[in-house]
Amino acid sequence: MKRPERQIRFADKKKISKPLFSNKSISLWEFNEQSHFICAEFHTKANALDQHSAEGLLRAHDLCDSHFDGIIIANDGMQFSAGVNLNVFLDMALKKEWKEIDSFLNQFQLACTQPRYAPFPVIAAPSGLAIGGGYEVVAQTDYVAAHSNSILGLVEPLVGLIPAGGGCKEMLRRWSNDPKSKEDSNYASMQVFNILVYALTMDSPNKSKEYKFLEKDDFMVMSRDRLIAEADKKIALVKENYITPKKSTFNLPGSKVMSAMIEILESLFDSNKIKDHGLTVGKKLGFMLSGGNTDISQPLSEQQLLDLERAVFLELIEMPQTQERIKYTLDTGKPLSN
Predict the structure, then answer these.
(1) Residue 111 neighbours by CB under 8 Å, 6+ apart
(2) Mind listing the pLDDT tens digit for each residue in 125-156?
(3) Is 159 within 8 Å of 106 (Cβ atoms)?
């Protein structure tokens, strides 16, 4: 059987070739279509991410030298990725392996952020859920070829955590580039806070662009079977004149914006929409999104924001209330308000 032209599926690829690299969570495949590219395929349950997924993404970067034009991150699963495997975090937290958690986060941050500053284009092609860590992988590529049914979001606050794979940094970068942020120093921090504290998810590419989960050069693909082909077409189009983006710097308001965030949280608390730990998580999230102990005159690097993400994440995962939330979600599939 021959598929229609420009329909690419891993099921077909696996019948005729072997991966360049593979472990229990990810495989790297070589494709030679309009461009010559590596395709990174997650293949765990719900494509949850772990240290093996991060290892594979880093390996893809190392392999994509002068022999390849770029990388596409895609898979045939029902979900692109439901995020980082919470079982991994809970197991390490119960064993009080804080250094191990920090080490994993550092590796995961590198795996997510490295694609954006590679000397070649990297494109994510999500379908279904791309939430939490799954969205952090998507967000830090050069372009996104999003299937029309893609659901994007950063939902970590629901389990008592904050995004710590570059998700906070990336959303701040996007909103800081909005013209309104030039007029209001609080604008970017407040916009991202209102999106993350409510754990909003985007159920269409158009809505995703409105909330900056997708950027202006990202594009929608109606046919799932054409996701990889359209991403390949984009690589072929940009590879000759590709320029690696420059890293951003941030001027965030620090404590100046925290009072407005706390006002929102106290209103939610008084109306019983969040409870004690929800208030704590919201304050920690606000601290991160305000830039921590800074003010608008102090430029912050991307690495400083990534370090702050990790520090706040570690503070939260050490709390028994966060561990209770994670366990409840793993047991029931639902969030716990505590």
Answers:
(1) 53, 54, 55, 57, 58, 137
(2) 999 999 999 999 999 999 999 999 999 999 99
(3) no
Provide the CB-side half-sphere exposure for 278 (13 A, CA). 21
Six-digit token string for 265: 């949280």
* DSSP 8-state code for residue 38: E
DSSP 204: S
Sort residue 17 into left (φ over 0), alpha (ψ -120 to 50) or beta.
beta
Q: CA 69, CA 234: separation in Å to the nearest integer?
A: 11
328's CB contacts (< 8 A; 6+ apart) are: 334, 335, 336
Q: What is the residue type of 246?
A: K
Contacts of residue 128, Cβ cutoff 8 Å, sequence gap at least 6: 77, 78, 79, 80, 147, 149, 150, 151
Question: Does residue 200 contact residue 212 with C-beta atoms inside 8 Å?
Answer: no
Q: Specify the number of domains making up the chain.
A: 2
Spatial distance between the Cα atoms of 258 and 260, rounded to a whole number of angstroms? 5
Q: Do 326 and 208 share a domain, yes or no?
A: no
Alpha-carbon 317 to chain mean position = 19
Q: pLDDT tens digit string along 83-97?
A: 999 999 999 999 999
Q: Which domain holds residue 181?
A: 160-198+246-338
Q: Is the overall model pTM greater than 0.90, yes or no?
A: yes
CA distance 279 to 167: 21
Q: Which of 220, 244, 268 is a domain's end point?
A: 244
The rounded distance, in Å, linking the Cα atoms of 158 and 337 is 8
Q: How far apart are CA 125 and CA 91, in angstroms?
A: 31
Rounded-to-10 torsion of CA 237, 210, 83, 333: -150
User: Is 123 found in the same domain as 228?
Assistant: yes
Residue 247 is classified by DSSP as P
Q: Tokens 């940094």 belong to which residue?
A: 169
* Residue at 270: amino acid letter: D
Nearest Cα to Cα of residue 260 among 193, 177, 309, 163 = 193
Note whether 18 and 51 are within 8 A (CB). no
Provide the β-strand partners of residue 73: 40, 124
